[in-house]
Amino acid sequence: MNTQTVRRAAMATFAVFAINGFVFASWAARIPAVTRILELTSGEMGLLLLSIAAGSVIALPLAGTVVARKGTATSIRLGGFTAALGGLVVATALGLVSVPLTAAGLFLFGVGIGLWDVSQNIEGADVERHLGRTIMPQFHAGFSGGAFVGALVGAGLSSIHVGLPAHLFAIVALVSVAMVFVPSHFLPSTTPAPAGAVMSPEVPGGKAPARGRTAWAESRTLLVGLVVLGAALTEGAANDWIAKATVDGLGATESEGAIMFAVFVASMTAFRFFGGKFIDNYGRVPVLYGSLGAALVGLVLFVVAPNVWLAGLGAVLWGAGAALGFPMGMSAAADDPARAAARVSVVSTIGYVAFLAGPPLLGFLGDHFTVRWALLAIGVAIIASILTAPAAKPLPQPVSGGAAPRTGSPAPEQAERG
Questions:
Q1: To which H or E segment does residue 303 belong?
Q2: What is the mean pLDDT of the chain?
Q3: Looking at the DSSP assignment, which residues form a beta bridge with residue 210?
Q4: What distance in Å separates the CA atoms of residue 159 and residue 170, rounded to the nearest whole number?
Q5: Does residue 361 lie within any of the structural domains?
Q6: Which one in 28, 207, 236, 371 has a CA-CA gap of 20 to 30 Å to 142?
């Protein structure tokens, strides 16, 4: 495949990650406003957020099969348009001050985001393999950068009292236009695999179908999923609660809470842009240890800090530590290109259960201990991820004269590190 095609695909993949982050942050940065509009407690808001989790938990395990059948471009379009429909429903529901309708819209939003996320990670792994160097963290930096912009936009619109429904309608228009044009620049797809199947390297010729669900029985895949679980919960909890924890715990304004969220995302974005070089130089496992350790320290500092400035320093460390765990997990799941779709789907499902379902559970704890102190529960998951980090060590790459299948894997030289 020629270099220009791969570079164009890399730019398109970066763009869909960035748009995904912008869309998610446009919602997350204004959760305090949603809580106020619908007159909900932290626990009730946590229950409402479970609607997103429910939609994604349904979509994520099926995403590998959808990608295998339809390819990443079509799958991302399907996810993007579904998320946009969910945004329309949420905007309408907030205008009507309807909690049930908001929950229905968030469910659709979760379905769309789940399918979109698995598809973009599979495409990112393909591009990474074709480029021959670590680039997945930069794609996730695109997500974080988009989230940073979305958070700033949310803070700005909140400060000038622009209604959240109008904000969401504009986001829907952006997503709809992007889904038409951007995925057309992805890497060319090969013939889709049979329903629910991936190419099995264990069978001579590598052409026998193996059902995607078999990846759930692989110990390494599940352990990589546990690594991602801690990293995803760390990131997801900040996305959903750092703004509200700042407002409620430190007496800050809603705009200042959104800025704290932006500080977290800015730190995460910066480390994702430059993290690929650390991974190539030192390997996945050592970088995972350092990242998860920094996340734990930053989290604790944010919670115990007596003022906004020290909490901001904690947010910087927290964001830096959360930066690389998820993308390294996606790369680890896609080490074998023949099994990438099924394994990325499994690891994404585990990670996104934590990313989306964990924060609402923190909301329930927040009713008893305040949201800020409830965040300390994330430390348990971070420690579990540290203990299972060696599972992400790259797999040995097979030596073959044939072309690799079109489902993505890190560059061969990465297999010697970690």
A1: helix 284-304
A2: 81
A3: 198
A4: 18
A5: yes
A6: 371
Alpha-carbon distance of 158 to 167, in angstroms, equals 10
Q: How far apart are CA 406 and CA 334, in angstroms?
A: 11
**What sign does the CA torsion over 257, 259, 261, 263 have?**
negative
Count of structural domains, the chain: 1
Count the helix, strand and coil residues of the chain and give each as a percent rounded to the nearest 5.
80, 0, 15
- Which amino acid is it at 358? G
Least confident window among 229-233, 365-369, 374-378, 384-388: 365-369
Exposure string over 182-194, b if 16+ CB within 10 A, otherwise e: bbebbbeeeeebe
Residue 412 inside a domain? The answer is no
Query: Sign of dihedral through CA atoms 246, 252, 256, 257?
Result: positive
The angle that helices 325-333 and 284-304 make with each other, rounded to 10 degrees, is: 150
CA 93 to chain centre: 26
DSSP 317-356: HHHHHHTTHHHHHHHHHTSSGGGHHHHHHHHHHHHHIIII
CATH of the domain at 344: 1.20.1250.20
Averaged pLDDT, 230-259: 83
State the Cα–Cα distance between residues 409 and 215, nearest whole angstrom.
Answer: 16
Q: Is residue 209 part of a domain?
A: no
Q: What distance, in Å, lies between the first and last C-alpha atoms of the chain?
A: 28
Residue 398: predicted pLDDT: 55
Amino acid in position 292: L
Structural domain boundaries, residue 364: 3-184+216-395
Confidence bin at 261 (pLDDT 50/70/90): confident
Cα gap 261→311, rounded to integer Å: 11
- Amino acid sitting at position 85: L
Q: How many Å apart are CA 147 and CA 277, to the nearest integer?
A: 23
Beta-bridge partner residues of 209: 199
Band of pLDDT at residue 410, cut at 50, 70 and 90: very low
- Distances in Å between the Cα of 270 and the Cα atoms of 9, 138, 317 are 22, 9, 12
The DSSP bridge partners found for residue 211 are: 197
Residue 416 has pLDDT above 60, yes or no: no
Asked if residue 380 belongs to a domain, the reply is yes
Q: What percent of the chain has pLDDT over 70?
A: 87
Q: What radius of gyration do the chain's Cα atoms show?
A: 20
Predicted confidence at residue 397, as pLDDT, reads: 62
In angstroms, rounded to a whole number, what is the distance separating the alpha carbons of residues 174 and 178? 6
